[in-house]
């Protein structure tokens, strides 16, 4: 769902003269909300989400201040330089996804300032359009070569084997059941990593024939859609959901004090090491171990990569996206056309499907 931004005031001078000072003075007036239609009142994001979006804009303002740039002096090149300055782990360049996230929020604020008459033009719009075009040629049209048609069967067999091993090591633990459901879901649904993390229990329905329906809510570049999984996935999800009902989610006192909403994610993660006094139990059933309200993407990635490593693949370079491409390749092997493959993947274009088909034909 799209986000809009509003301010409680429209003074232009602080914005134009000193971006950093303006951010400090005005950050409480920046409010992000879901974009509604003319008959629907915009729904505000939580305080936590607003602070996150404000932090993206704030980092950009600090960068401008260091360059002695005013907002009405910002050009396309400046925004490109800022994105290039972002760093990831071990001081490596930030990921494409991180840069897209920053750019999206910068564009949202500039769009608002332009609409409010504070600025004459939005310099981020040109950058965003350029990135979108680049993304199609750099990411969507150049996926890694998918493995052969027998790969997913081997992957699912390995997932079952790893479940047996993990359960033998953690007989009273809940993570083996979660890991199996995660591994199979990625292989049998073709969901993106972000979609897996966004699922809630209500997105899962079991059919009388032993299959399972997954209603993905979509996420950013992928459309919402309904997928059907076979019995093996249905059993794994049913086992996990039953075990999940016996767990208790814990939240930090700080999160509660800040009014952060309680998560209802389908998949849960373990709480990172923290003082016990800072954690407050609540939510589901009797706790077996501390359960976090959300599942970090790194947990899903690590879970899938361990399976790939066991199959002899270079997991350092291949993760959930590799399995997603294998899922698309299986659909192509079964005779599905590019448009239908793209619908299954939730893609708005056929770039990925066409590129995978070309790689399969070239291989």
From TrEMBL:
Residues 144-363 form the Tyr recombinase domain. Keywords: DNA integration, DNA recombination, DNA-binding. Residues 35-114 form the Core-binding (CB) domain. It comes from the Bacteria. Coiled coil: none annotated. Belongs to the 'phage' integrase family. This is Integrase. It comes from Variovorax ginsengisoli. The lineage of its organism: Bacteria, Pseudomonadati, Pseudomonadota, Betaproteobacteria, Burkholderiales.
């Amino acid at each position: 769902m799209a986000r809009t931004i509003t301010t409680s005031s429209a003074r232009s001078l602080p914005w134009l003269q000193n971006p950093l000072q303006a951010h400090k003075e005005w950050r409480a007036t920046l409010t992000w909300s879901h974009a509604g239609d003319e008959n629907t009142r915009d729904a505000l994001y939580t305080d936590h989400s607003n602070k996150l979006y404000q932090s993206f804009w704030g980092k950009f303002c600090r960068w401008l201040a260091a360059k002695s740039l005013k907002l009405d002096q910002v050009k396309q090149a400046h925004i490109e330089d800022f994105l290039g300055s972002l760093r990831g782990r071990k001081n490596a360049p930030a990921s494409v996804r991180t840069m897209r996230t920053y750019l999206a929020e910068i564009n949202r604020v500039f769009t608002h300032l332009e609409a409010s008459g504070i600025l004459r033009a939005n310099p981020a719009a040109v950058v965003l359009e350029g990135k979108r075009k680049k993304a199609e040629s750099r990411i969507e049209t150049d996926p890694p070569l998918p493995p052969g048609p027998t790969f997913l069967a081997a992957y699912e067999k390995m997932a079952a084997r790893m479940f047996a091993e993990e359960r033998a090591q953690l007989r009273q633990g809940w993570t083996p059941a979660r890991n199996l459901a995660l591994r199979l879901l990625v292989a049998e649904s073709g969901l993106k990593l972000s979609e897996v993390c966004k699922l809630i229990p209500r997105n899962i329905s079991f059919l009388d024939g032993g299959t399972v329906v997954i209603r993905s809510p979509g996420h950013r570049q992928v459309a919402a859609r309904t997928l059907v999984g076979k019995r093996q996935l249905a059993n794994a999800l049913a086992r996990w959901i039953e075990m999940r009902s016996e767990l208790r989610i814990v939240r930090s006192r700080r999160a509660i004090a800040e009014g952060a909403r309680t998560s209802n994610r389908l998949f849960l993660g373990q709480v990172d090491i923290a003082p016990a006094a800072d954690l407050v139990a609540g939510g589901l059933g009797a706790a077996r171990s501390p359960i976090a309200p959300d599942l970090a993407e790194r947990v899903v990635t690590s879970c899938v990569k361990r399976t790939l490593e066991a199959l002899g693949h270079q997991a350092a370079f291949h993760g959930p996206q590799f399995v997603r491409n294998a899922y698309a390749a299986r659909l192509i092997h079964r005779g599905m056309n590019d448009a239908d493959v793209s619908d299954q993947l939730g893609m708005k274009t056929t770039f990925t499907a066409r590129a995978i088909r070309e790689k399969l034909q070239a291989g």
